[in-house]
Amino acid sequence: MAMTKVLFPSQYLSMHIISGRNIQVSCRSSNKWVVQEDLLRATSTYNQDGFDSTNFGLLVKDVKYALRTERNNNLTLVDTLQHMGIEHFQEEIQSILQKEYEQSACFLKYQNHHDISLCFRLLRQECHHVSADVFKKFKNNDDGTFGLNLSQDVNGLIGLYEASQLGVEGEHILEEIANFSGEHLNACLANSDSCDEARIIKETLKYPYHKRLASCKAKSFINNFKGINGWGRSTLQELANMDYSITKEIHQHELIQVSRWWRSLGLAEELKLLRDQPLKWYAWPMAMLTDPKMSQQRIELAKCISFVYVIDDIFDVYGTIEELTLFTQAVNRWELCAMMDLPEYMRSTYKALYNTINSIGYNIYKIYGRNPTKNLRNTWANLCNAFLKEAKWFASGELPTADVYLKNGLISSGVHTVLLHMLYLLGFGLINQNSIYLEDSSAMASSVATILRLWDDLGSAKDENQEGNDGSYIECYMKGQKNGSIELTREYVVKQIEDEWKQVNKKHFDLMNGSLGSFSKASLNLARMVPLMYNYDDKQSIHVLLEYINYMLYDV
Prior knowledge:
Keywords: Lyase, Magnesium, Metal-binding. By secondary structure, this protein is an all-alpha fold. Helix content is 65%, strand content 1%. The protein contains 24 helices and two strands. The chain has a two-stranded antiparallel sheet with strand order 1-2. Helix 1 packs parallel to helix 11, helix 11 crosses helix 14 and helix 15 runs antiparallel to helix 17. The longest helix is centred in the middle third of the chain and has 33 residues. The N terminus is likely disordered.
């Protein structure tokens, strides 16, 4: 849905000022994901009294004027705003792309590889149905291969590689383009004498725009931005930095609320082996829901995500099969008195889950007039049922087939649980067409869950200080192969992830052209967040995730 007006940061700050407090990540302590509140002073660059809303408004006005008049560079400006993570111009951007789409020969005016690829990518990102056949013009008529002159055009190769990431199943031309451009970009990287060019190629290959969070590389893009034909460098850099500072304040305020809520439960003190990671849990909704106005949705979603991690730890490092069966039965009953049948150490977790989810359901009722608690509690029952099935597999030492493991793993990933909560928090599925919304959202959730489960298992990494039982799709798959090597298996899993992204793209196109646009965007961002969460290095550290969090919350 297009934004009808620009909301100035001072309007956000009236609700999100941090009263004399700052928060820091305790990165050097034994747990890097604990939030600490600094009692000295807030690090706010733009506060309610000092923010220059007049200058901000002038910058917005300048960019709007450029979007209306710089017709030859409109697509470049749109791309720049998106790479900087500036979301104030959705209405103008949608208008520009709609006009591009409505032109009967919208690609004919673009002659070089980069411009055609950019036009295609921006239209596909906006979910316009443009054909990939436009790229056939780059093939040689004689042998159907791509021309040598294209292999030497770095900007063209980057554009093609970025465009190829928006393919759906059956678009073989985009697969060819991805392979061709990826191969030649790697060759260009090996022979590049330019540090800037090498950096851009590396980032493109590792983090193509469509499959990464816009804010993940925004700082690098802003700092290295040179302007568009001599215009916009200072204007866009200043606007992006002001916008970032306000967003940071909002996120800090939300993180404090999540951290205080988590501390109030007392679970980390009672169960010492639980992951105590409120910062990490909040990073998920911070990435998924980028609209600054969605503070309450982000906070509530962080609470939901925290219990996915907590219950996972209960199943992995605490309970016996008998105890876990009792816990699963209690969640299926969803009665407070059911906790009396549980071991002492499980009671606080069950009570906290019961109260938190009921509270989320009631808060949704107060806003939208319908209470989804029945469906919310059912998804927690499904999650615990999947956790219990895995626990029994690993306790028996008899691993299932890869297909059976993955089918259950889609549920135990927690994605369905999280996205169902988000669906209701966004106001969908509560009044009319409830079954249609649930069916459409579940299909998207399954594809995102597949990406998460395979990425998680591909890493084969144990989370911080975890020593429990946990399975792996790779382990199950190799068990069913007579002569399968770990290298071939990993290649197979990477290909599965690439194929599932095509399913995500197709479902995203369908949902965006339906009535679940904001849900689909957030689901897509969840899939984009997965590589950051599970990209462990050799020291079992998630360096890229820490960089992202430091940028979004601390300007480090």
